[in-house]
C-alpha cells in the first residue's frame, strides 16, 4: 500500500468509531475542547513515540517529564515532600501495581487479602485474579458509599491493603476515606485511594468552593493514590500516575532480575518497554493547560454536570442514583422506562451514554462522564427526546425460553455451540455464521441483564474471542489494499 492508500484506509477504519472530540462521547474519552492543546499533545506523542522508558539513563528526557508530572500532582493531592510517583499506562495498571506492591511488602502473609467496597473498580478484582490476593468485598450503605465500620470489621491478619474510591465509577460518590484510612492505619495496613477518575477534578472543585470529602494525603493513613492523566487531565491515552506517600512504600513495586545472561532487568511498572509517546503527550498537555487552565476546565465540567443533573431531576421517567461528588452521573428508570432503549435513542441523536447492567438489587442505569466540552443544553434536549421515544417503544422483551436457557448454561463450560445459541437468541448471528452486530443494542443488553453476573462474564469473553478472530480472506484483501 502506498502512503496515501494507508491514510485512506485508516480514515475508512476510523469512520465507524465513536468521536473523541465534541463532548458527545460520555465514556472512554474525555474532551477539553482545546484543539490547539490536542494538536500539541499529538505532536509530542509523535516526537517521542520511538523513545523507550525501559532505561531512564538512555532516555533521561522521559524521566525528567515523569518527575515533572509527579511534582505537579503533589500540589493536587496534598503530597508531602517525601511523595514519589510512577507514570503507568492507565488506571488499571496503577491499581494493579498498588495491589502488587502491598502484597510484596508483606511476604510473611501466606494468603494475602484486601478489603474493598462492592463499588470498587473492577481493576482491583483483576489484580486479585492476577496476583492471588483475595478480595474481601464489603457491601456499601444506602448512599452507595463504602461502609467504614464494616470495612474496619473486615480487616484481619491476612489483610495487606484496604481500598476506597474518590469517587466510585458506577455512582460518582466519594467514600468516607478519613474513617477507612484510620481503620487501616490502626491495623498497620496500607490504604489506597482510587482517584483515577476524580484526582484531576476534586482538587480544583475544592478551590472553586464546592464541598469535597477528604481524600488526599492530608488524610492520615492514606498510603497511595492513583489518578489518571488521560481522563480529566485531558492527556492522550494512556497515562496515569500511581503516587506513594514515601519511597519506602513504593519500593516493593519495583522488579529487578539479574539471574540470567542478558541485561539486568529493572522495571517500575508492569511493562518493560514503555513508549515515550504517552509520557510526552501527558507532559505537553499539563504544561500547556496549567493550573489556571485546569481550574477553568473543572468549572466548566462541573457546571455542565450540575445542569445535566437538574435536567434529569425535572425529567419524568429518570431519576439520579446519587448526587455526584464529581463529574460522573448515573440515572435509573423512574417508571415504565427501559434505560437500554434510552441509550440507543441517544446514540441515534449522536450521543454515547454508557449502559450499566443491574447488580444485586440495583436496577440497570445509564452512566455519563461529563467533560469540559460537553454541551448540557444539547445533551438534555436529546435526552428528553430519547426518553419520550423509549416510553413510546415500551420495554424490551426477553423471550422466556431464552431466560430459561440462560439459567441452564454453565459459565465454566460455555463453548462455541452454546455461544452460537445465544447469538441466535440475541439476534447477533450473521448470515455467514459470524457476528452480526445490530444497530440497536437494547435487546442485547436486556438479554445480558437477564443473565447472572458470572454468565455475563463468560458470554462477553466468548464475544470478545469471536470478535478477535481475523478472517484470512479479509486480511489478505486489507494487505492488498482492496478491503
TrEMBL record:
InterPro entries: GrpII_AminoAcid_Decarb, PyrdxlP-dep_de-COase, PyrdxlP-dep_Trfase, PyrdxlP-dep_Trfase_major, PyrdxlP-dep_Trfase_small. The keyword Lyase applies. It comes from the Bacteria. Pfam families: Pyridoxal_deC. Keywords: Lyase, Pyridoxal phosphate. GO terms for molecular function: aromatic-L-amino-acid decarboxylase activity; pyridoxal phosphate binding. The modification N6-(pyridoxal phosphate)lysine is found at residue 231. Its cofactor is pyridoxal 5'-phosphate. The keyword Isomerase does not apply. One of its GO terms (biological process) is carboxylic acid metabolic process. Belongs to the group II decarboxylase family. Sphingosine-1-phosphate lyase subfamily. PANTHER family: PTHR42735, SPHINGOSINE-1-PHOSPHATE LYASE 1. This is Glutamate/tyrosine decarboxylase-like PLP-dependent enzyme.
Amino acid at each position: 500500500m502506498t502512503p496515501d492508500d494507508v491514510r485512506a484506509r485508516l480514515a475508512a477504519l476510523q469512520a465507524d468509531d465513536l468521536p473523541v472530540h465534541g463532548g458527545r462521547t460520555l465514556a472512554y474519552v474525555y474532551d477539553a475542547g482545546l484543539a490547539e492543546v490536542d494538536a500539541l499533545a499529538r505532536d509530542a506523542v509523535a516526537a517521542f513515540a520511538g523513545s523507550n522508558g525501559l532505561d531512564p539513563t538512555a532516555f533521561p528526557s522521559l524521566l525528567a517529564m515523569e518527575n515533572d508530572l509527579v511534582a505537579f500532582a503533589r500540589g493536587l493531592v496534598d503530597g508531602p515532600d517525601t511523595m514519589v510517583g510512577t507514570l503507568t499506562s492507565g488506571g488499571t495498571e496503577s491499581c494493579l501495581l498498588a495491589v502488587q506492591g502491598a502484597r510484596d511488602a508483606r511476604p510473611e502473609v501466606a494468603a494475602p487479602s484486601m478489603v474493598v467496597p462492592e463499588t470498587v473498580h473492577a481493576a482491583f478484582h483483576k489484580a486479585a485474579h492476577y496476583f492471588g490476593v483475595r478480595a474481601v468485598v464489603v457491601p456499601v450503605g444506602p448512599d452507595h458509599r463504602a461502609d467504614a465500620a464494616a470495612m474496619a470489621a473486615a480487616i484481619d491478619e491476612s489483610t495487606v491493603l484496604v481500598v476506597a474510591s474518590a469517587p466510585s465509577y458506577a455512582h460518582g460518590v466519594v467514600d468516607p476515606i478519613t474513617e477507612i484510612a484510620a481503620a487501616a492505619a490502626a491495623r498497620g495496613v496500607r490504604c489506597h485511594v482510587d482517584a483515577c477518575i476524580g484526582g484531576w477534578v476534586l482538587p480544583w472543585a475544592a478551590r472553586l468552593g464546592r464541598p469535597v470529602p477528604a481524600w488526599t494525603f492530608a488524610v492520615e493513613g492514606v498510603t497511595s493514590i492513583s489518578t489518571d492523566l488521560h481522563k480529566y487531565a485531558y492527556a492522550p491515552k494512556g497515562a496515569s500516575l500511581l503516587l506513594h506517600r514515601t519511597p519506602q512504600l513504593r519500593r516493593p513495586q519495583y522488579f529487578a532480575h539479574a539471574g540470567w545472561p542478558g541485561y539486568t532487568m529493572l522495571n517500575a511498572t508492569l511493562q518493560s518497554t514503555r513508549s515515550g509517546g504517552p509520557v510526552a503527550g501527558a507532559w505537553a498537555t499539563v504544561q500547556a493547560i496549567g493550573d489556571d487552565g485546569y481550574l477553568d476546565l473543572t468549572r466548566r465540567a462541573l457546571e455542565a454536570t450540575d445542569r445535566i443533573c437538574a435536567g434529569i431531576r425535572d425529567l419524568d421517567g429518570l431519576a439520579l442514583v446519587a448526587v455526584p461528588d464529581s463529574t460522573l452521573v448515573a440515572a435509573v428508570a423512574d417508571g415504565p422506562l427501559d434505560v437500554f432503549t434510552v441509550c440507543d435513542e441517544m446514540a441515534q441523536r449522536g450521543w454515547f451514554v454508557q449502559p450499566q447492567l443491574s447488580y444485586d438489587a440495583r436496577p440497570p442505569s445509564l452512566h455519563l462522564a461529563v467533560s469540559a466540552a460537553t454541551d448540557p443544553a444539547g445533551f438534555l434536549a436529546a435526552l428528553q427526546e430519547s426518553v419520550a421515544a423509549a416510553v413510546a417503544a415500551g420495554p424490551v422483551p426477553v423471550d422466556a425460553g431464552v431466560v430459561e436457557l440462560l439459567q441452564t448454561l454453565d459459565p465454566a463450560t460455555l463453548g462455541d455451540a452454546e455461544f452460537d445459541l445465544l447469538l441466535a437468541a440475541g439476534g447477533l448471528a450473521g448470515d455467514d455464521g459470524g457476528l452480526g452486530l445490530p444497530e440497536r443494542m437494547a435487546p442485547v443488553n436486556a438479554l445480558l441483564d437477564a443473565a447472572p453476573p458470572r454468565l455475563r462474564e463468560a458470554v462477553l469473553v466468548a464475544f470478545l474471542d469471536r470478535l478477535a478472530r481475523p478472517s484470512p480472506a479479509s486480511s489478505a484483501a486489507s494487505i492488498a489494499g482492496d478491503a
